[in-house]
Amino acid sequence: MKLTSSLFSCSVFTRLFFALPFLTLFPAALPPPARAQLTAAAAEIRPTVTAAMGDVGGKLYGQTPDPTKTRRYYVAAESELWDFAPSGRDEICGGPLPPPVVAARKNGKLRYVHYTDATFTARVIAPPHLGILGPVLRGVVGEYLAVTFLNRTSQPLSMHPHGVKYDKDNEGAYYRPAPGLGAAVGPGATFTYVWQLDASSGPAPDEPSSKGWLYHSHVAGDAETNLGLIGAIIVTDPARARPDGTPRDIDREFATLFMIFDESGLDDAAIEAAEYANLPGAAPAPLTFSEMQQTLEQGARASINGRIFGNLPGLEMNEGERTRWYLFSLGSERDFHTAHWHGLRVLEEGRRRTDVVELLPATMKVADLVADNPGTWLFHCHVADHMREGMFTRLTVHARDTVGADRTPAHAFLGLPSAAQSVHLDRAELTADTFQLNGVATVYEGFAVFNQPIRVTLGEKSAVFRPDAHGLAETPEGTLVIENAGDTGVIRTGLLEFNLTLRGPAWRAALPPAGQPTTFTLDLGKARHVATPTFAPPAK
């Protein structure tokens, strides 16, 4: 399919994108000593919850929510080396990445990671298009969200929601004089936030049938969103919802965050130093003002969901589908964005027909798009500087006569419990006395396939495989091949791709009658991955 990209510039990263008057951003009335005191105060944040306290959350206004009306999620904050452009090239224009990006394509981030249960051992497979975004939390008006948060980092963090109803302990924001319990969850600590999806959390009668809200860490301000601690909440009107909570007038959902991540390594203190270098009596700054601007520019990553230069995958839909786009923006005064769809039109907030939606920092909007024009199209921010910085990707509308995108609710919608799986089977076949299973399971980045045995259980029978450095394990009962073990046996993508063959009548005897679902378990270290395949009887 042909990529349509009219009026789009693929010029390289060759100029400064802004020359903001930083002197207007930091009031000169506040002297350097006072600013130093503010910095010291921020460093004195003490956790409101520690690991020794256990989980002291789980209540809202002193009451445990009705479990029949509560949706549970398990989310950990973890460090990760984030790659803004995994392909290593500009996927839209076909050329190399700009030199500043090549020099620092990967950066340390903190992310919200979704787990299957309270053991926090098996990560949930995330939709590819979410990129750096944390798990989508969803419900309908009248329900509660209970989010058990585990902080696996070395600094206090939180989860602060927009749009939903909470008490002080569940606010997830640290500020004086009396922060709530969940304001600053310490390293190694766990806290269960409870949020109510009341009427004001959901859409008004004249708005689309579901709304999108942000959540993010709110202990040390914007520094934590810049680190990547951002996610989305979806709330649906129950009068317009299916039984699973998805909006019944929609066939597919997407969530996109337009944000410029600052990877310059400079912080407010460096900016203030440059400012005060020009004031009488100030100490000399380590960088001149122009040097600081250049460093900030080279560190700017104008991204959609944390990916740049066409490196965000997964924006795929089928011809005729009604799709809903939850559009978000965060960041600084540079984060004024204009989301633009080529070849397609949207209805913004149910009121305005357009193909460009304006976003300010901390904006949350809904746009509905009918996929009526098959092809591969550009999706980007229309601000010229942001285009040059790589804030663009592609979307695909599959024609009716093609295989297209998966239409099952677990893959078409965001945050459904049925999608909270850590293993996905692409193939489960039975031929005579041989079982063939192909799929993917989540692992931690840097997983060495040869370091530990892998236990496979199908029905009531188990077997242990010990892959070698090439990802191959042979036993009399079967063969396990780790397809992406590579030359070193180390998986760096976070997903283990496996091909499993089980042989012999003992496996057949352990299964229920043909056509009934069975349990498939893959134990990787402490992580247990469970699926329920159904094997059709072999063809005669």
Characterise the protein shown here:
- The protein has 540 residues and is mainly β.
- 10% of the residues lie in helices and 34% in strands.
- The chain has helices at 32-43, 99-103, 222-226, 268-276, 289-298, 384-388, 409-412, 505-509; strands spanning 3-4, 70-83, 106-115, 137-140, 144-151, 160-161, 190-196, 210-216, 230-236, 252-262, 300-304, 316-318, 322-329, 337-341, 346-348, 352-354, 356-359, 363-370, 375-381, 392-398, 423-431, 434-442, 447-448, 454-458, 461-465, 472-475, 478-482, 490-491, 495-503, 520-524, 527-531.
- The chain is globular and about 70 Å long.
- The model is unreliable at 1-42 (pLDDT under 50).
* Count of separate DSSP helical elements: 8
First CA to last CA: what distance? 40 Å
The class by helix and strand makeup works out as mainly beta
Task: Estimate what percentage of residues fall within beta strands.
Answer: 25-35%
- Unreliable parts: 1-42
Average pLDDT level: 88
Molecular shape: globular
Features:
540 residues, mainly beta, 6-stranded mixed beta sheet, 31 strands, 10% helix, disordered N terminus
Offer a quick outline of the entry.
By secondary structure, this protein is mainly beta. Helices cover 10% and strands 34% of the residues. The longest helix has 12 residues, at 32-43.
